[in-house]
Amino acid sequence: MNVILLAFAMMIFVGGRAAATVPPAVIYENPAYEGYCEAEYAGPDIPEYVEITNGSMVNFAASGVVGSAIRTASRLNHVPNPLGLSHSGVCFVENPKYLWLTVRELAPRRLANPRLECYLSVEEGEIIMKRLMERYSEIIDAMVDIPCWKLFIMEATGDMTEIFDGVYPHVTISPLEDVVKKFNGNIYARPLIRGVPLDISRGFIRDYLGRSYETLSTGIELLRAIRGGNTREEDDRLFCSELAAALYHRAGIISRRILANNTIPEQYSSYAGAGDLLAGYAVEDIPLKLGSNVRCLSELVESDDPRTGCKCSI
User: Fold this and answer.
1) In the chain, which ranges are continuous DSSP H helix?
2) C-alpha 147 chain-centroid distance
3) What CATH number corresponds to the domain at position 93?
4) Which among 7, 76, 8 has a CA at the least distance from the CA of 228?
5) Which domain holds residue 143?
6) CB atoms within 10 A of CB 182
7) Domains contained in the chain, number
8) What rounded mean pLDDT belongs to the chain?
9) What is the pLDDT of residues 42-74, one digit of tens each?
């Protein structure tokens, strides 16, 4: 009997604290597997399936003028950015119905009592609920809970259509498939070796969903981040990589000595060399989407790091 009780205690407690539940990894069918030109891409083999864990990083490289501007700005911080990364988001493994119910609960609370620590407006909540319903209506409308796990991207961003409707850039969440399909550029996943516990990710979603993106008046914070020039954190308004760092602070992946608003997208890439904030916690970058603009990395960055030699990407 004592042996059984001891085994049960060991299952509940790990290292002196309650063991945290981590949702299962989701096997994602990689759209980049057949969507690139082998004659132009000479990087690591692209897998047909990607195992994505809770809290994994997803980085974006905008095409055209935006991508060129980001690559130019990245030279100011001495962090290699051969992928031309311009945006970051975190990928959560979550049940669609739980997420839909959470959003439905949060938005009216702010309307009823603006002093509550809830940032999600009714309009923002309706947009998210509509996205979820369009893709997962059968799961959300089911009379019984359907145990399933799907992939969602949480990011600080904005949509021009929404802006014209008076909904300004903010922290939002969307199905991964929708974001991959819509984004015009290259996308790279960087799965965590061990996923973030569910209580941390769910608490983070509740606390940060709806927070505003940086405005023109506070945008200097984003500019200072390029050179690591911020001296204190202010997270009522966030930019994309700052949001990711806030999650990784909670999960104990990034030291709190590194200010969240001093992080930039290229620091979440395995090509960042000594600047890689996820070294030891995540695998190397895996392309999820590759556009037509594919060039050799040596044309984009000069570095002695063997990982940023003449491999090829965007």
Assistant:
1) 2-12, 64-74, 96-112, 122-141, 160-164, 176-182, 198-208, 220-225, 240-250
2) 23
3) 3.90.1720.10
4) 76
5) 45-304
6) 9
7) 1
8) 78
9) 667 899 999 999 999 999 998 766 666 666 566
